[in-house]
Amino acid sequence: MTSNAGFNLYELGLQYQRSGDVLLDNLSGEKELHLPTCFLYSHAAELFMKAFLALKGVDQKELRQYSHDLVELHRACEARGLTMTITNQRALRYLVSLMRSGHSEYQFRYSERSFNTASTSRMRRDLSSLADAVGAEVAAQRSIRELASRPPAPGTIEIPKIGKIIVGVGL
Known about the structure:
By secondary structure, the protein is mainly alpha-helical. It has one domain: Four Helix Bundle (Hemerythrin (Met), subunit A) (Up-down Bundle). The protein is built from 7 helices and no strands. Helix 2 runs parallel beside helix 4, helix 2 packs across helix 5 and helix 5 crosses helix 7. The mean pLDDT is 86.
């Protein structure tokens, strides 16, 4: 998957997050809007984690293998260096475990059986910390691209990246 995909997935995640925020801000105790809000937030979490993995070089084929499994996506993100405070790491780990059946088993969409999940206020809070962490990676990747696309400063030369250095020691 191209790194552009990571940027695009992140931006789409922000749209789902904002949509969930709009619903939550206008819930006014209306319980019938709870599941749509949960769906928007859980889908945003999936998109943020897939964006992070894409930015870290995970290709589309591997991303598809995660399907909609938030717990496995989160594990993969942690393994590839998703940076958050310890408190936020724990909160996110707990959140994705709570959202798992609602998201992975499509209960937020179809509600075919009873299930437990996180409150929408917890989802909002913990999703924001995930969005911030992935947003930091997006910003870092954009900075790297910007620096790489600049022409060399006058009076400097560009030294190409060395692919391999082989050192041999004779006895």
